[in-house]
Specification:
The complex is a heterodimer. By secondary structure, chain A is of the alpha/beta class. Helix content of chain A is about 40%, strand content about 15%. Chain A has one domain: Rossmann fold. Chain A is built from 6 helices and 5 strands; from the N terminus they run E-H-E-H-E-H-E-H-E-H-H. Chain A has a 5-stranded parallel β-sheet, sandwiched between helices. In chain B, a hairpin with a 3-residue loop joins strand 3 and strand 4. The chains are: A alpha/beta, B alpha+beta.
């Protein structure tokens, strides 16, 4: 089941780990006035949502994908996203427990960012900034301006 | 200088050496070089297991990914048992 909160810029996050879903939602809570976090629990659910996006539905400003998910993994979802005209220009970040160079190269090949999941609070505190950094300049400024 | 730094990085770290470095450095090393093995929940704690070189490192959290209770090392594969028990087999066979 997709879970949404009604806010302006949509950050879409797919991960089968409910603890990580909560953690990222909490991390974005400082931007609650202007960021809506939409989540999915696997790759199939993620694609079902993303396929509904057209000219009349607002596209996410950022897509965050876990790599290892049941049904359909983040790599396959990323490949499909790059084939979808409505989403081809949306920044995507692979957010994963992996720190492997192969995964980093895969992300690069598909023009996606790559962030290894944090292990403690000091790394966690930087995560939202790293995510926002992947957004377009306009979105980035909008999100940060409203935070001030 | 750079060659020396690379040579240091390439040197295999032993478990006994890893246990002696400060917790902050242990976390940095795991973040950059650890291979994620799995996650398990037991006794109210969430634990993550990583492989580093030829040994395993387990992080026990008081608060998941935020507050670490302890970091435990082992070179025995018995540390895997708890994690193997919690793998959801239907994902593997489905």
């Amino acid at each position: 089941m997709l879970n949404t909160t009604k806010l302006k810029n949509i950050v879409f996050y797919a991960d089968d780990d409910t603890d990580d879903l909560e953690l990222v939602q909490d991390a974005f809570s400082r931007y609650t006035t202007n960021v809506e976090v939409v989540t999915a629990k696997d790759g199939v659910q993620a694609l079902s949502y993303l396929k509904t996006i057209d000219h009349y539905t607002p596209a996410p400003c950022l897509i965050i994908l876990d790599i290892n998910m049941p049904m359909l993994g983040g790599r396959d979802v990323l490949k499909k996203i790059k084939e979808m005209p409505a989403l081809a220009s949306v920044p995507v970040v692979l957010f994963t427990t992996s720190s492997s160079n192969l995964d980093k190269e895969f992300a690069k090949k598909y023009d996606a960012g790559f962030i290894t999941k944090p292990l403690d609070i000091s790394q966690m505190q930087m995560i939202t900034e790293l995510f926002v950094e992947h957004c377009s300049d306009e979105i980035k400024n909008n999100i940060r301006k409203r935070l001030q | 200088m750079e060659f020396e730094a690379n040579r240091q990085r390439e040197r295999i770290m032993r478990m006994s050496e890893f246990e002696l470095v400060p917790a902050r450095k242990q976390i940095e090393t795991l973040y950059l070089e650890g291979v994620y093995v799995g996650k398990c929940k037991t006794g109210g704690y969430v634990k993550l297991l990583f492989q580093l070189e030829s040994f395993y490192v387990e992080i026990v959290y008081l608060s998941y990914r935020l507050a670490i209770q302890k970091i435990r090392c082992s070179d025995s594969t018995t540390i895997l048992d708890e994690y193997l028990e919690q793998i959801e087999i239907e994902y593997l066979v489905g």
